[in-house]
Amino acid sequence: MATPNSTPIDSCSAEEVAAKAMHKRYEGLVTVRTKAIKGKGVWYWAHLEPILVANPETGLPKAVKLKCSLCEALFSASNPSRTASEHLKLGTCPNFSSTLRPITTVSPPLALPLSHNHRKRSAHMGAPSSSYHVNSLVMVDSRRELGYSSPPPVQNPAMSGGEKMLSHHQLMLSGGKEDLGALAMLENSVKRLKSPKASPGPELSKEQIDSALELLSDWFYESCGSVSFTSLEHPKFQAFLNQVGLPPVSRREFSGARLDTKFDEAKIESEARIRDAMFFQVASDGWNSKNFGFSSGEENLVKFTVNLPNGTSVFQKAVFTGGSVPSKHAEEILLETTSGICGNGVQRCVGIVADKYKAKALRNLEIQNHWMVNLSCQLQGLISLIKDFSKELPLFSIVTEKCLKLANFINIKSQVRHSFHKFQLQELDHVGLLRVPPSKCENMKNFVYVYAMLEDIMSNARVLQLVVIDESYKVICIEDPAAREVADMIQDVQFWNELEAVHSLVKLIREMAQEVEAERPLVGQCLPLWEELRSKVREWCVKFNIDEEPVEKIVEKRFRKNYHPAWSAAFILDPFYLMRDTSGKYLPPFKCLTHDQEKDVDNLITRLVTREEGHIALMELMKWRSDGLEPLYAQAVQVKQQDPVTGKMKIANPQSSRLVWETCLKDFKSLGKVAVRLIFLHATSCGFKCNWSFMRWVCVHGHSRVGLDRVQKMIFIAAHAKLERRDFSSEEEKDAELFAMANGENDILNEVFADAPSV
Predict the structure, then answer these.
(1) Tens digit of pLDDT for each residue in 273-301?
(2) pLDDT at res. 257
(3) SS3 of 23, please?
(4) Residue 54 near residue 61 (C-beta atoms within 8 A)
(5) Antiparallel, parallel or unpaired: β 74-76 and 313-320
(6) Is the C-alpha dihedral spanning 158, 162, 163, 168 positive or negative?
């Protein structure tokens, strides 16, 4: 890691080093401008062009400037945003202001005598100061010139005598320029009284109106709380409906009959799809609060989803638990839910995947129903691994303690905080405190707050260095030993190496967890997933010179807690993981399993079939192990294609693994039944997400029977629609991505300027 107090080891001269930095800075600005011109950046790059200024004596670059393409002026490249504001927005550039100045219908525009500087403006703009013939149209244009935003008055050609007298009379408004808006409202009121009939909207047929309201209701319910019922009766929204030719809508209608109809339609479709499936898996999410940046605080709402063999999912119901639930009560809810879905065909439920209760509730249900395979959510497993590291790896507690001391000192000590903000503004163009975990938060159990603090300290590394070498801080160090301790910490290379190590490991696991949440892997992918994690952790140990043994113990402990024999069985039975041997056969990857995992495969298969079929299933397993699958079909199953969104290579036809067992491998009668019921199982329970706004609405209105009924119906409609289009994100996450894209240019600039000397 490049620490704040490290110096570059280079044989080049100081001029060459500075020239390289300038060239890097110039290339960064060119990259940003190129993206902006293509529509992925802010507007001002169309007018500002980076220029590399060379030293006339040496010929090496000595500075980077910004040239205005409109007036050829040169500026410092230290802050393009500020340059744009001062030079372009404020009118310093004559060419820019003239091209964007609004075109008025009266030339020259007459300045209004409403402010103390109107004479100066009038003289400058060439308007005769003795004329006060100000009609409504001139007022509109003059106000635009002055930058006012109040509603424009409308000129009425048929003016009464009183209005003419008003237009010719000198306008001395007692309220100053703020009276312009009120005057515009007065003239509009006069106009409405003269023509009381509002302009009608477009004429729509009954079918068009019904179709439009149907789409409106779909959008409203699928927003799931982002838009309130009261907003439907907002005057501006009602005016919009009238403008497009739609009748007004009421919150009573949307919370009553229309809501019931939408719910019934979604419920009937959902139940029909479940009935058509031969078997399914129940996913239950919300028992455990994933408080690590992946959830929306839905710990009181448990959602049940049904995963079908064809890869789709349908929403079943939501249960409000009101907080933590005992294992026995959770077991009863799970059993009641699966029984309600299955009816008489209890064996149609292959199993349950949930984010909690693996050791008790899920295990008990599996013992009571031998055909069930109950799994713990892989997303929750990865999040728990971060907690394991924070509690069991000493490096985490050491770094956390040091960072807490540093952050609290910077935030609390006023003189230091002011210096910190000064350098923040200078280096990062913004100010803010370092995020610190809440006082009541257990840092080792809830590492999300600690991680936020680590990120802040990492991103402010250069700022912190500038703070401690500032003269004002040195004065504080004379009397305050805590200041000296913090300064030593910031200037210590080991501190930054340890901080980066912890931050890097948490980021590594977080990224894997986010990928798992997005991809929703099947049970056969669990063993490869954890092997990939082990490999990345070993690389992390080598990179930061960390002892591998204690780290591997923590990973293996969490692996054993999450492990289920179905991981090994699905890995062996899924044709996607077949491996080509030297003879050209595609065989199941038994060599990737340990001896105990091979036993798990045998035991699970015999448990999932009848006692009479147990011996037959094991014989078929031996045949599968020796013969495998025909190369042509194996290659067809393993075909991958590039995902157009992420760019990653994915399975072209995820259903082909199951279809091969039901067609080409139908001779494996007993083993085939186990295979098709195993390889489609999901390894995560995450699915539909509610919005924060909706959860707040639930807390307020969910205590009444009527309110709870409406909540249940809205959740069902929204979840049904989202799962149908395979949308597993929340509106908050999409908004966060949008704002992150908007700030992307600043991030690039920060990277470009991080190590560049000031000009």
Answers:
(1) 999 999 999 999 888 754 433 334 444 68
(2) 86
(3) helix
(4) yes
(5) unpaired
(6) positive
Contact 61, 47 (CB under 8 A): no
The Cα 416–Cα 676 span in angstroms is 64
Strand partners, 375: 353
Beta-strand relationship, 301-307 and 313-320 = antiparallel
Instruction: List Cα–Cα distances, 163 to 112, 151, 168, 186, in angstroms.
Output: 18, 19, 9, 12
- In angstroms, the Cα distances linking 715 to 133, 428, 686, 688, 721 are 62, 42, 15, 9, 10
Residues 21 and 64 sit within 8 Å (Cβ to Cβ)? no
Supply the pLDDT for residue 597: 96
Q: Is 755 helix (H, G, I), strand (E, B) or coil?
A: coil
Whether 563 shows a pLDDT value over 50: the answer reads yes
CB-based contacts of 191: which residues, under 8 Å, 6+ apart? 154, 156
Element (H, E) at 557: helix 548-562
Q: What is the pLDDT of residues 670-696, one digit of tens each?
A: 999 999 999 999 999 987 777 666 666
Q: Tell me the one-letter amino acid at 361.
A: A
HSE (side-chain half, CA atoms, 13 Å) at 291: 17
With bands split at pLDDT 50, 70 and 90, how would you rate the model's confidence at 307? Answer: very high
Strand partners, 67: 49, 74
Residue 269, both tokens: 């479709």
∠ CA(703), CA(294), CA(393), 5° rounding? Answer: 120
| Pick from 96-110, 229-243, 249-263, 479-493: least confident | 96-110
307: β partners: 281, 313
Over residues 321-341, mean pLDDT: 87
CA distance 750 to 744: 10
For 378, half-sphere exposure in the C-beta direction (CA atoms, 13 angstrom radius) is 28
The CA distance from 407 to 459, in Å, is 13
Rounded-to-integer distance, Cα 225 and Cα 251, Å: 13
Residue 664: burial class (beta carbons within 10 Å; 0-12, 13-18, 19+): middle
3-state secondary structure 384-427: HHHHHHHHHCHHHHHHHHHHHHHHHHHHHCHHHHHHHHHHHHHH
In this structure, the strands spanning 280-285 and 349-354 are parallel
By three-state DSSP, how is residue 124 classified? helix
Buried/exposed 375-387: b ≥16 CB within 10 Å, e otherwise: bbbbbbbbbbbbe
Go through the chain and tell me how many residues it has.
759
Give dist(CA 715, CA 718) in Å, integer. Answer: 5
- Please, are residues 620 and 601 in contact by the beta-carbon 8 Å criterion? no
SS3 706: helix
Task: Kindly list the distances between the CA atom of residue 343 and the CA atoms of 332, 337, 339, 347, 588, in Å, as whole numbers in the listed order.
Answer: 16, 10, 6, 10, 36
Separation of alpha carbons 581 and 83, rounded Å:
65
**CA 247 to CA 238: how far, in whole Å?**
8
Comparing CA positions, the residue from 621, 623, 587 lying closest to residue 601 is: 621
